Amino acid sequence: MERARAAKAALGDSVFILGHHYQRDEVIEFADVTGDSFKLAKEAAARPAAPFIVFCGVHFMAESADILTADTQTVILPDLAAGCSMADMAAIDQVEDCWDELAELGLAQSTVPVTYMNSSAAIKAFTGRRGGTICTSSNAKTALSWALERAGEGGKVLFLPDQHLGRNTYVNDLRGGLDDCVVWDPHKPMGGLTIDELRSATMILWRGHCSVHGRFSVEAVQAARREIPDVKIIVHPECRHEVVELADEVGSTERIIKTIAAAPAGTAWAVGTELNLVSRLARQFPDQRIAFLEKNVCYCSTMNRIDLPHLVWALESLVDGMVVNPIRVDPDVAHHARVALDQMLALPGETHKD
Ligand code: 13P
Ligand code: SF4
Predict the structure, then answer these.
(1) Number of C-beta neighbours around residue 62 at 10 A
(2) Where are the domains of the chain?
(3) Which residues surround ligand 1 with Cβ inside 6 Å?
(4) Per-residue pLDDT tens over the stretch 96-122
(5) Three-state SS for 307?
(6) Which residues contact 178 (CB under 8 A, 6 or more apart)?
(7) CB burial of residue 117 (10 Å; 0-12, 13-18, 19+)
(8) pLDDT class for 351, splitting at 50, 70, 90?
């Protein structure tokens, strides 16, 4: 702790540390700003002064920060092994192949891609090139409405790479039908779908999911309701549709925090999101009863890669004049990814709520 404090003090305003809500306490302690992925993207874009941005989160977040910051700024990810298994479920070649197949069927021109922030810069660039938008868990509803309107009557959305966020947003937030959704499996010819299934679908959901949130179960919701009197279930929209349907509240990490913070003392919660955040909430709000929704779900192992030793290493290296683990997105990819990120930032009102 002392070494991190000393290095940060020595660096002063030349460094700005961003921390995602899933980070360990020992890392959050040193964050200048904490947030969900949308808030952190905006914060990165709003820090033109700091030459170094240390991103305590995962690789796709650091890439987005690099795209949104000036060329004179350097984004540092303290451990390059901090990836995201969901982002890895959509490779750019697979996405291009999918688009080519849709084009062959005459469907691509009426399809708008909506890509979750949890994706590689290459997929964000694909989205920019194809006239789509990025979304996060806090603005997916607005992003999807925008895309459906843009696709027009009979048009489609290709939602990448989290099938659950796509389905939950379409069905729960926009009151669309489950039958309008099909799942594109990148490992099968034509996504494993028939021509008729593709023609009649409104939502083509990529077959990706979060390996942490995908594990929260209906049984855990039922057990919490049985065992905790008056419990409120709050979950992240990356959870499976059946789980989200049974929850009382659904929202991004920032929204989960705000909802719990605003609740009266004595409220009982079972929270379905990453464990570092749930444990911190339980400590921050001791007058509320906060439980982790599912005992068998563990930390996000890649978020957890960023620990105090890696942060100290990144900061002390900067003090010594060395930049370790810079994240630099190829300029052409960055240009098109920025188009899609800017489209997200330009979405109306609701994007800025939580
Ligand atoms: P938020 O955008 O809600 O912070 O979620 C990011 C994430 O990776 C959830 O798994
Ligand atoms: Fe990726 Fe899931 Fe970890 Fe979020 S919690 S970073 S989606 S693996």
Answers:
(1) 28
(2) 2-83+303-323, 87-211+337-345, 213-292
(3) 21, 36-38, 118, 136-137, 210, 236, 238, 252-253
(4) 999 999 999 999 999 999 999 999 999
(5) coil
(6) 167, 171, 241
(7) buried
(8) very low
For residue 341 and ligand 2, the question of a CB distance below 6 A is answered with no
Q: Crossing angle, helix 253-262 and helix 275-284, to 10 degrees?
A: 20
What's 213-292's CATH class? alpha beta
Whether 2-83+303-323 shares its CATH topology with 213-292 is answered yes
pLDDT tens per residue across span 6-55: 999 999 999 999 999 999 999 999 999 999 888 898 888 887 789 999 99
Nearest ligand 1 atom, CA 210: 10
Q: Return the structure tokens found at 94.
A: 């697979």
Angle between helices 121-129 and 92-104 (to 10 degrees): 30
Tell me the H-state helices in 29-120.
37-45, 59-68, 92-104
| 285-289, 322-326, 344-348: range with lowest mean pLDDT | 344-348
Q: CB of 162 within 8 A of CB of 116?
A: yes
In this prediction, residue 349 carries a pLDDT of: 66
Alpha carbons 283 and 317: distance in angstroms, whole number: 33
Q: Let me know if domain 2-83+303-323 sits in CATH 3.10.105.10.
A: no
Structural tokens at position 145: 């409405």
Q: Are 254 and 36 in contact (CB under 8 A)?
A: yes
